[in-house]
Specification:
By secondary structure, the protein is α+β, with helices and mostly antiparallel strands. 29% of the residues lie in helices and 35% in strands. This is Cation:proton antiporter regulatory subunit.
């Protein structure tokens, strides 16, 4: 599917970007000249008639973008693993008692010890894609991993309990 986005200049106001869905509905983001943002859902029959809109703050816009980004990245990864026999994804929560809380991802040596790849960390509804070994882990982080079933089981034990 090709995603269709239209840009509409609003002279003296700002710019509106419309995402046109497969069903013909329009979801718009209006960015005003003063930096304010507004989400709008437009009438399917009249693209100029806004059915409902709401102003959102910078923090709300960032959180919304992060939610979509994290959700999309994980769902694409899940789809890939469903299409590949023997490859799995796992979301591993970093528990409070883990010896790796406030340590770096590199300190876990997850790849070396378990042959599992860490592809992202989800923290406070934000995604850190392709984290570096220097990324400090925090209690409650969700570590998104890819590997074999045995490797993922070993990585879960490692993250929770530390090396054996």
């Amino acid at each position: 599917m090709t995603v269709h986005i239209e840009k509409v200049d609003l002279p003296g106001i700002g710019v509106r970007h419309d995402l046109v869905t497969e069903s013909g509905r329009r979801l718009a983001v209006v960015r005003y000249r003063d930096g304010e943002r507004e989400l709008g859902v437009y009438d399917a029959d009249d693209p100029d008639r806004c059915r409902e809109s709401m102003r959102i703050t910078d923090d709300e816009a960032e959180a919304l973008a992060d939610l979509f980004s994290a959700s999309l990245a994980v769902s694409r990864l899940t789809k890939l693993t469903e299409e590949t026999d023997g490859l799995y994804t796992e979301k591993i929560a970093l528990p409070a008692g883990s010896p790796f809380v406030d340590k770096t991802l590199g300190d876990t040596k997850t790849r070396t010890r378990t042959h599992v790849s860490v592809v992202a960390i989800i923290r406070d509804r934000r995604i850190i894609a392709s984290p570096t070994p220097d990324e400090t882990l925090r209690e409650g982080d969700v570590i998104v991993t890819v590997g074999t079933r045995a490797g993922l089981d070993a990585a879960t034990r490692l993250i929770s309990d530390g090396p054996e």
